[in-house]
Amino acid sequence: MRYSGVRFLLLCCAASLLWISTSCTRPNPIEPPGPTSTAHQDGSHIDAKGNRLIPLREAAHVLGLRMEDGDQVVRIGYTDVIYELYPGRPEALASGQLVTLPQAPVQIKGTPFVTIESLSRLLQAPVQWNSERQTIDIGAIRNAGQMPPTDGISGHRLHMTGAGVDTQDLIQFAKSFLGVPYQFGAGPYEESKKFDCSSFTRHVFAQYGIKLPRLARDQAKQGSAVTRDNLKRGDL
């Protein structure tokens, strides 16, 4: 009887282990969520509400702009950042001004997308989807002061030397930063130890008591305009 009891106990243990093993190998009964958007061959998507989503990188390419994106912020611009978008949030920045988008940008497989309506609001320009060519058409952009130049040469520059600055000293100070890495949308030099175009000029002129705005477009409104023939050393 003693052995029968032991045998019965062993059979119970074996049955329990078999049940546990079988339970662990069962497929998960929870169904995965359905897709939130439908992909199209042109690279766009249609979200659950029927809005067409455009990849922001393609929109930037159409405009001749560069783009850098991360999990929390997308930066688009030419030599400096013009637009900032935040995936999952309707707030955006356009030339330093707060813009509220109709629909927040979204990340799809690590790629930022935006609706046509939101892209139009951001650019302050008409944006349409061309179904025949499967492309987006972007009209004239309002306040496009930082967009890529069409001829590569601007007829005017900013004359800053009239502010009582020792031009030679300013130039030597600026040259002391040769070799500093460039970073699109760089933070303050004191923190990032990097520059983009406008943060460099802002940092240099700040040493001589001249406060410039952060964006190149706004810096272009400072000082007095001079023709190219009248440029002097130290002018912007």
From TrEMBL:
Coiled coil: none annotated. Residues 164-236 form the NlpC/P60 domain. GO terms for molecular function: cysteine-type peptidase activity. InterPro entries: Cu_amine_oxidase-like_N (IPR012854), Mao_N_sf (IPR036582), NLP_P60_dom (IPR000064), Papain-like_cys_pep_sf (IPR038765), Peptidase_C40 (IPR051202). It comes from the Bacteria. Belongs to the peptidase C40 family. This is NLPC/P60 superfamily protein. It comes from Paenibacillus popilliae.
